[in-house]
Amino acid sequence: MAEPYYATTPIFYVNAAPHIGHAYTTILVDVASRYQRLAGRDVRFLTGTDEHGEKIAKAAEAAGTTPQAYVDEVSAQFRSAWDELGIAYDAFIRTTEPRHQAVVQEVLQRVYDQGDIIYGEYGGLYCVKCERYYTEKELEDGTCPQHGIAPEYRSEANYFFRMETYRPWLREQLETNPDLIRPEGYRNEVLAMLREPIGDLSISRPKARVPWGIPLPWDEEHVTYVWFDALLNYWSDLVSHGLEERYWPAAEHFIAKDILKPHGVFWPTMLKAAGLPLFRHLNVHGYWLVEDRKMSKSVGNVVRPLDLVDRYGNDAFRYFLLRDMRFGLDASFHELGLAERVNADLANDLGNLLARTVGMLGKYRGGVVPAFGPREDADRALQATFAALPDAVLRHVEALHYDEALAAVMAAVSEANRYVSDRAPWELAKEAARAGELDTVLRTCAEALYATSVLLDPVMPERMATLRARLGVPGDVHLDDAAAWDRVPEGTRVEAGEALFPRVDLEALKATMEVGDGADAPAEAVEAPLPHKPEIAIDDFAKVELRVGTITAAEDHPNADRLWVLTVDLGPETRTVVSGIKAHYTAEQLVGTTVIVVANLAPAKLRGVTSQGMILAAEDAEGTLSLAGLDRPLAPGSEVR
Ligand code: ME8
Fold first, then answer.
1. Is the same domain home to 460 and 549?
2. Is 19 among the catalytic positions?
3. How far apart are CA 26 and CA 10, in angstroms?
4. Do 131 and 22 share a structural domain?
5. Which of 283, 338, 396, 469 is within CB 3.0–4.6 Å of 474 for a Cys-Cys bond?
6. Do 102 and 194 belong together in one domain?
7. Does 57 map to a domain?
């Protein structure tokens, strides 16, 4: 039987519609699952929604509806967003489902019966958005590090899970199994948390205050809704289908760093107390930042995934997210970066290989794939590059290096493009005696494209299926097909068509961004980057001759009120420079001032007076002008370098 693989996303809170961060984790797990399916493993992919609690109840109240009606609606929004993003999950769990609640109650009772849940009074600083207490030390400037808001002091009689008891055990687990939490930086963070007492975990609230939760089986006056409810989803879904033995040992959790403590500390200790084995890995990624800030509704920088899908297509969007984030680190989202990535990798490199291959097959072989002719070293070298990729890609994916997996495939696509240029099939086509070689080149290109379509299938399932259909070989694929080099057999008819990934018009995009930046920039938006001119080489800059000058006279321009006609002493020479700074400087202010002059500017007539150079000045956003000068006196004519 195929080796099992069980991958999970966090279950998302239903107090807001999904944004690019939720989409990222879910796409990531979709891609991870699809690679494992492609490699023949027995995959189960679970996602879902976290529906209980105080903030959900408040959101429902604000929406003027009941909690149940509210969570039904928002949970459905998540599901339909995942459908649009091509997420092939196997199971979707909602914490309000009876099948989940039954498992939570069963586990709670077990842990309670063995004495690991106690009743007590607790006072502390509570962040309602995180639904947990914080220690003073965890706060940043007195605020919750996730939400930047001050937690409120709360004191309540609740039930507590005796988490502290399991601290030594958990440290030992992390030491003997260094891979359990990865990348390593997050494992170290958890180890640091475990150096000091972790306290006991509050797991219930009085029903009278917060009814929206799961009743404790031994005390109907209290409900659980916090982490004891949410984390158990990973287990309850399996139990409700009788699949726990098959999949639990292969559990791979994917989360972002915001919920590291609940997953790295609460969850393993809960599992231990419940007598259950640990998951296989906790995989922790960084944040998508928008213009270097965390996304938030109040800043107004929330990026909606479906808007981007509308503009760029789902597969291109998925590709970008995985290619441009290094797992574990934060990444900054910018739409221009997305557009540039789509153009460079997909429209240019991959699009070019497809257009060339189909074009040449049409032109030289009537659109029909030939058998291989004689093969040379160059043909074998390209085949060898692709043959190594299925293993390499799977290794990268299993090590969470998604960006490197995609970079490796795209490097092979670039190599295929270079191969076409080097083998110059258009030259081979001129000589009848080289028809066999031409066959080899055309067939090699078709196989390279097919292999690419398999290797990128988990990331871009829809477009890669279209690519295979264009090559005349639709149908299911396995990762090994990428190395087979015989999947586009002789006689297959290829089809030309529209570009798989249309090129994005970057200039038009930049123009809309400029308009957009002014019109809907949120009040606290970060400043736009400088509008840089195109980069120049040092040699270009060296062409500009800048010299120190002293203004010796400033006269009115005969034909223009806003211009001064300046006489500038450059040492051995005197120049006349017409300058538009009259609104900023009087003649008295100017005469005797040291300035920087562009000395080799071609002379130009300005309203009838010839100007022999230009003086440099800076202007700020408010329109205040300041002449560029020197911080100590130098002789006129000295060169500025
Ligand atoms: O915490 N960048 O739900 P949640 C990347 N219900 N990923 C991001 C992100 C960003 N800027 N913002 C959010 C909860 N995410 C609990 C989880 S699990 C048993 C209970 C993703 O709706 C990322 O996966 O706040 C993060 O961990 C998750 O959304 C938090 O989702």
1. no
2. yes
3. 9
4. yes
5. 469
6. yes
7. yes
pTM: 0.79
Domains: count for the chain: 3
Residue 54 lies in a domain: yes
Has 144 been annotated as catalytic? Answer: yes
Give the model's pLDDT for residue 298.
Answer: 67
Each residue's pLDDT tens digit, 370-416: 999 999 999 999 999 999 999 999 999 999 999 999 999 999 999 99
Q: Please indicate whether residue 396 is annotated as part of the active site.
A: no
Task: State which ligand 1 atom lies nearest to the alpha carbon of 26.
Answer: 24
* 127 classed as catalytic: yes
CATH of the domain at 345: 1.10.730.10
Mutation test residue for ligand 1: of 24, 47, 252, the one with most atoms within 8 Å of CB: 24
Nearby residues of 571 by Cβ (< 8 Å), 6 or more positions away: 635, 636, 637, 638
Query: Measured from the CB, is residue 267 less than 6 Å from ligand 1?
Result: no
Q: Which of 58, 129, 147, 241 is catalytic?
A: 147
Q: What pLDDT sits at residue 301?
A: 80
Q: Which long-range contacts (CB under 8 A, 24 or more apart) does 556-560 make?
A: 557/606, 557/607, 557/609, 558/608, 558/609, 559/607, 559/608, 559/609, 560/606, 560/607
Which segments of the chain have a pLDDT < 70? 297-298, 515-534, 621-622
List the domain range (segments joined by +) for residue 568.
538-640
Name the domain boundary from 456, 483, 510: 483
The pLDDT of residue 541 is 84
What is the rounded end-to-end Cα distance, in angstroms, of the chain? 73
Whether ligand 1 lies within 6 angstroms of the CB of 230 is answered as yes
* Same domain assignment for residues 421 and 476: yes
Q: 472 with 545, same domain?
A: no
Q: Is the CB of 12 under 6 A from ligand 1?
A: yes
249 in a structural domain = yes
Shared-domain flag, residues 265 and 347: no
DSSP 50-82: E--SHHHHHHHHHTTS-HHHHHHHHHHHHHHHH
The last residue of a domain, from among 468, 483, 498: 483
How many helices (DSSP H) and strands (DSSP E) are in the chain? 25, 26
Question: Do 458 and 562 fall within a single domain?
Answer: no
| pLDDT for 532 | 59
Look up the CATH number of the domain holding residue 24: 3.40.50.620
Q: Per-residue DSSP letters for 589-633?
A: HHTT-EEEEETTSPPEEETTEEE--EE-EEE-TT--EEE---SS-
Decide if 339 is inside a domain: yes
CA of 9 to the centre of ligand 1 (A): 9
* Residue-wise pLDDT tens digits, 73-123: 999 999 999 999 999 999 999 999 999 999 999 999 999 999 999 999 878
445 is catalytic: no
Q: Are residues 280 and 336 in the same domain?
A: no
Domain of 552: which CATH number? 2.40.50.140
The CA-based angle 563-567-571, given to 5 degrees, is 145
pLDDT at 220: 93
Q: How much distance in Å is there from the Cα of 50 to the middle of ligand 1? A: 11
